[in-house]
Structures are given as C-alpha cells and as structure tokens.
Write a structure and sequence with these properties.
By secondary structure, the protein is mainly alpha-helical. The chain has helices spanning about 5, 20-35, 45-55, 60-70, 90-115, 115-135, 140-155, 160-175, 175-185, 190-210, 210-225, 235-239, and strands spanning about 75, 80-85. The protein has two domains: about 5-85, Arc Repressor Mutant, subunit A (Orthogonal Bundle), CATH 1.10.10.10; about 90-239, Up-down Bundle (Four Helix Bundle (Hemerythrin (Met), subunit A)), CATH 1.20.120. Strand 1 (about 75) and strand 2 (about 80-85) form a beta hairpin.
C-alpha cells in the first residue's frame, strides 16, 4: 500500500494534468515531488505558481494543499501561507514511538487472517525489494515505496482499517526523513542485509501464523529505530 496505490500517477508523462479527479492527482504530484526531493522541508507552496506549473486552476491546488495539511505534511502560517512542515529529531522520535505502538498490533492481527495467496503476494514483493536494494544504483524513492508496499500489505491483512489509516498517516508524516535516511541506508551493505533479514523474518512469522513472534519482531525493530535516529532531518535540509 504505497503512496501510488492511493493516487495513481503512472499515466502522467508531463506536469500538465488532465483528469476529472484533479485534487487527488495534484496531491499525488506534490507527493512525488516530496519523494524526489524537489520540495523541501519548510518550503512555501504558492497556489498560483503550482497552478501554472500543473496547468490547472487554483481550486484543486487549494484542495490538495488542504489534504497535505490533514496528512501532517504541510501547515498554514498566518501572513505566510501554506508551507511544508519541518521535522526535528524529536518530532521523528515521537512518530516512531507512535508507530511502535500501532504496527506490531496490526501485524499480529494479520497472522489470524493471512492466507496462502497473501503469502505468495508478500513473497513476490519481498523478492522485488531484494532485487531493488541490491542494485549498483538504487534510488531512495524506489526502496521507500517497495518497503512501504510490503509493510502495508501485511497490515491490511489484519482488517484493522482505522489503525492502518493511522499508521499510514504516520508514514506520510515521516516520509521526508525516511527518504534522507534511506539514501544513506541503501549505500550501506550492512544496512541492506539487516533490512532484508527483517523482511524475511516477518514473512516467516506470517507463514507460521505466529502473532507473538511478529509482534515482538516489529516492536524490537521499531524500538531500535526510535533509539538510534541517525541525524536531524531539518538540519540536513537547511545546509
């Protein structure tokens, strides 16, 4: 369940959008720009400029910016307008603490509902993930999207839709940081191996339908992320 599962951008070959669901498509394009590093933390989002860039009126731009605010990625500032948020190290830590509280629960419930078809799908995603992270040149965006797809495929099996929505919002909020960290991660062979082993362990626990095992695995792995945030993402963007 990556970002593009909610907002399909595959048919967009230019910055000009022609579709009847303009606000969703505008939001998708803005999310792509965030993930590609074209939009940075704290950057002001000018409605008129965006409308000109995307070839649409200002109304769908306003709706898309409103949705960015709901996702926790933007904020309205008096006398300034809408701008993308800035994340401090403490912000990131709090998001990871919230993820630690929710994701093990969703994964453990997934063990009660997982089917052979689910396992086959997760195996395919995991194989694609391994191929992607082991390439000589890898983009953080590709790794992030596949990792997200893998995790949310697991969580969605749980049937806990409200919890999955909360988790998704947390992932959206920390996407800036994940992309910065991800670029360093994919250049480190030890980190690559660690993440692939983590994915394998989740799949094995699901095959065994061992809810305690997958709960503890996710809790431990997210705990280590919380305790070892590598650097302040805000400072990175201000360099």
């Amino acid at each position: 369940m990556d970002l593009n599962m909610r907002i399909t951008m595959n048919n967009m070959n230019s910055d000009v959008i022609h579709h009847n669901k303009l606000p969703d498509l505008v939001l998708g394009k803005l999310m792509d720009w965030i993930m590609d590093g074209k939009l940075h933390m704290g950057e002001k989002l000018n409605t008129e400029e965006l409308a000109n860039q995307l070839g649409v009126s200002r109304m769908p731009i306003r709706e898309a910016l409103s949705n960015l605010e709901k996702m926790g990625l933007a904020e309205s500032v008096p006398y300034v307008g809408t701008r993308l948020i800035k994340l401090t190290k403490d912000d990131v830590k709090q998001i990871y603490l919230a993820r630690q509280a929710l994701e093990p629960v969703a994964a453990s419930h997934a063990c009660k509902h997982v089917t052979k078809e689910h396992i086959e799908l997760l195996h395919k995603i995991n194989c694609q993930y391994k191929v992607t992270v082991c390439q000589d040149e890898v983009s953080a965006k590709d790794v992030y999207k596949l990792n997200r797809y893998y995790h949310f495929t697991i969580y969605s099996i749980s049937g806990l839709n409200r919890i999955c929505s909360m988790i998704e919002s947390l992932w959206d909020s920390v996407s800036f940081f994940k992309l910065i960290y991800g670029q360093k991660f994919i250049n480190n062979n030890e980190s690559r191996e660690k993440m692939m082993k983590e994915h394998d362990s989740y799949l094995e626990a699901l095959k065994e339908k061992d809810s305690d095992k997958i709960y503890n695995l996710l809790w431990k792995n997210l705990s280590s992320r919380t305790e070892d945030i590598p650097y302040d993402a805000t400072a990175y963007f201000e360099e």
